[in-house]
Amino acid sequence: MEYSYPFRDDWSTQEVIDAVSFFEAVENIYEKGMNREEFMNRYRRFKEIVPGKADEKRICDEFEEASGYSSYLAVQKAKQSEENTRIRM
User: Where along the sequence do coiled-coil regions lie (predicted)?
Assistant: First the structure.
C-alpha cells in the first residue's frame, strides 16, 4: 500500500482515526472479506463524520483514485447482503 488516506484538516484526531478505519474496512472487503455488521458500523461512524452526500462522494472518490478500491461498491454490496454474513468483493 503506497497511498495515503483522505481526510480534512478540520477533523479531530478521533475523526481521522475513525475515517481511516472505514477505509481500512473497504480494503479488507476487497482483499480478504469482512463481517457485514462490523463494516456497516464503521460506515455509520464515517457518515457521522461526513454526513453530506457531496462530501462523502468527494472523499470516497479521492480514496478510490489513490487505492483503486470503491467505497461506494463496498457499501452497496454490504447493504444488499444479509445480516451476519461475511462480505467480499
Answer: none
> What is 13-81's CATH superfamily?
BH2638-like (1.10.220.80)
Alpha carbon 48 to its chain's center? 12
User: What is the spatial distance between Cα 69 and Cα 29, in angstroms, rounded to a whole number?
Assistant: 9
pLDDT digits (tens, 9 = 90+) for 21-80: 999 999 999 999 999 999 999 999 999 999 999 999 999 999 999 999 999 999 999 999
Give domain limits for the chain.
13-81
Rounded to 5 degrees, what are φ and ψ at 42? Answer: -65, -40
